[in-house]
From TrEMBL:
Residues 15-149 form the Molybdopterin cofactor biosynthesis C (MoaC) domain. One of its GO terms (biological process) is Mo-molybdopterin cofactor biosynthetic process. InterPro entries: MoaC, MoaC_bact/euk, MoaC_sf, MoCo_biosynth_MoaA/MoaC, Mopterin_CF_biosynth-C_dom. The gene is moaC. Pfam families: MoaC. Keywords: Lyase, Molybdenum cofactor biosynthesis. This is Cyclic pyranopterin monophosphate synthase.
Length: 160
């Protein structure tokens, strides 16, 4: 029988025990996109969305999301996050790229925290712009890079 890391011998859910793992510096970078109408992206750039400063609100929301990850995803360990950076990139006339970089020194990685930061930032953009654009699409959320831990460094090599 296969042994699962998040299920005990009686089939009950459990959190992985990281007590004996070494503490290392860890970083994860996640990425995602939100596709918008060209007019919506222009309104964001020009500060014309009625709800306010879309990107700054989304940045704060992304940071808050990172910090709340262990409360949202059942088997994530609460982590002492040492750094969070949420960045936005106007990729073309209809696409906003979102990057979340998360750092810690600890026994487990911060990939889920980076994914949560990107997701919450994108959802906040959607929430703030839905009055002018209901066709927005959040997509392509993926891990770009992670460092630290037993598995070492991972860097995405393709754009799938």
């Amino acid at each position: 029988m296969k042994e699962f890391t998040h299920i005990d011998e009686k089939g009950r859910a459990k959190m992985v025990d990281v007590t004996d793992k070494d503490e290392t510096k860890r970083e994860a970078i996640a990425y995602g996109q939100i596709k918008l109408k060209e007019s919506t992206l222009e309104k964001i750039k020009n500060g014309q969305i009625e709800k306010g400063a879309v990107l700054e609100t989304a940045r704060v929301a992304g940071i808050m999301g990172v910090k709340k990850t262990s409360e949202l995803i059942p088997m994530c360990h609460p982590l002492l996050i040492t750094g969070i950076d949420i960045k936005f990139e106007f990729e073309n006339a209809t696409t906003l790229g979102i990057y979340a970089t998360v750092r810690t020194t600890g026994k487990t990685g911060v990939e889920m925290e980076a994914f949560t930061g990107v997701s919450i930032a994108a959802l906040t953009v959607y929430d703030m712009c839905k009055a002018v654009d209901k066709d927005m699409v959040i997509k392509n959320i993926k891990l770009m890079k992670k460092t630290g831990g037993k598995s070492g460094t991972y860097v995405r090599e393709n754009d799938d």
